[in-house]
Amino acid sequence: MPNFISSTASKIALFLLFSCGISQAQVVGDNHTKYTRADTLRGSLRPERTNYDALKYHLKLKVEPDKKFISGSNVISFEVLKDMPVMQLDLFRNMEIDSVIFQDQSLEYEREYNAVFLSFPEPLKIGVKDSLEFFYHGQPVIAKNAPWDGGFVWTQDEDGNPWVGVAVQGTGASLWYPNKDHQSDEPDSAQLDIAVPNGLMNVSNGRFIGKTDLGDGFTEWRWKVVNPINNYDVMINIGNYEHFSDTFQDLDLDYYVLPYNLEKAKKQFAEVKDMMACFYEKMGPYPFEEDGYKLVEVPYLGMEHQSAVAYGNHYQMGYLGRDLSGTGIGLKWDFIIIHESGHEWYGNSITSKDIADMWIHEGFTSYTEAIYIECRWGKEKALEYLKGTRKSIGNMRPVIGEYGVNAEGSGDMYPKGSNLLNMIRSIYNDDELWWNTLRDYTATFKHQTVTTQQVENFFNQATEVDLKPVFDQYLRHAAIPELQFKKEKDQIFFRWKADVENFKMPVDVFIDEDETRLNATTEWQVLPVNEDDLDEIELNELKFYVNLSKQ
């Protein structure tokens, strides 16, 4: 979703994502033809970033909704990996820096766009573990249309109480707090001490560890995360919340909703236990059991904020009451609950090192929608749903973006990514192998950041079929391959037409209603059937997302 379109600039992908219903909490933006210095500072890995590892963030903030204002600090614990004279942190330039304190001294710094370069009196030596406290204040960027653009949402509930949410995937967590704003480095843990006006509650990631009335009209709410967490998942949710809870096996399920929606929430959120039963079976255990699972009602559509999933689907089935697939199957379940929670496994636990590989989040999580459908209503319904989502695929730009400049690829990453995974399952042609491989993938890369190459290699090693051409075509090229048939000299020939040189991929077709697997390549091959059967050849469209032509 984040679970929904959260990630950087916009706007072509917006139409695709909206039409496809993908509330993905991510702001998907266009690829730029030219990138700026600011893009490079945000998206690249240079010594000022790679010379240290972020270990923990401890946010201590006061939030004033009436002023749309935040102030406080972030204590950043780190380990030096290489001798480091200068450290880069990130904070949007509209936010004012008060001071940065290291070993009781104020550090000198320079700001360039949204990057902050801290200079140490002496280079820090490899192996040093230490911390600094970064004090700041300001009015953070306000989202115009969260979660499709990053920022704060300052609003009121129906009773007139302040209601505050934040969604920053892609745009960057540095929009509101200082951090190393790159997906390749996640803090191992985090704590949030958030002071809000008395009568309101702040709900953040992880476990609630206490609250204190500060005596000045504000109450501090403290939350702690003990697992690695994406920068953009670190979150605050402020409102007049009611809390109720449940359990699934050993997992705590906690829900925070507005009081007048309590009864609706108790009914709607009952689906979580069905979802967990399905996901545990198909994908493996919930990856953040120590931090618990929460759904938090928010004033925008939704986002995958780790262990505090943002929910704004208005207690409707489907995607705001719509079926993104056009099949009717999408109205049997709450899209935001399933999709955003699926991100806990794919996006939160397994995170792409570079935002260019965001399909690793969105393709896999979109596939969890089909997983849930298959658990509840059978494989055929899941395949129909996946096919239905293809209507929103534009095939205008590659799914993978450009590396090192904080650029996502095409918004096709949602439905095209999920249909790619379905094809790989079809290529395996062995469901037991497929589910074992998916569970192994989830366990192998748990709490890690990964690259597309690692994902490709993992799924490739499980089968004798070489999947490299398949990944290349569907992720690095805009078009999908075309399966061509032609009549010639009383015979029927077939081949692939594709961008990838020497492309090859097995594909299932129906000939006179009998299913046949063709090991097609870019070379013409003879199909051992009568030429009169050309009109009877049909693609198995539920399993394979390709174009078909007959000459």
Structural account:
The protein is an alpha+beta fold and 551 residues long. The chain contains twelve helices and 29 strands. It has an eight-stranded mixed beta sheet with strand order 5-4-8-2-1-11-14-13. The protein has a five-stranded mixed beta sheet with strand order 16-17-18-20-19, covered by helices on one side. A four-stranded mixed beta sheet has the order 27-24-23-29, with no helix packed on it. Helix 5 (271-283) packs across helix 7 (359-377). The longest helix has 19 residues, at 359-377. The radius of gyration is 24 Å and the shape is globular. The relative contact order is 0.12. Mean pLDDT is 94; it is low at 1-32.
The backbone outline, from C-alpha atoms, is globular
Structural class: alpha+beta
- The percent range for helix content is 10-25%
Oligomer: single chain
Count of DSSP H/I helices: 12
- The tally of strands reads 29
Strand order of the largest sheet: 5-4-8-2-1-11-14-13
Query: Which residues form runs of ≥5 with pLDDT under 50?
Result: 1-32
Q: On the 0-100 scale, what is the average pLDDT?
A: 94
Biggest pleated sheet: 8 strands, mixed
Strand content of the residues, in percent? 25-35%
| N-end to C-end Cα span | 42 Å
Rg computed from alpha carbons, rounded to a whole number of angstroms: 24 Å
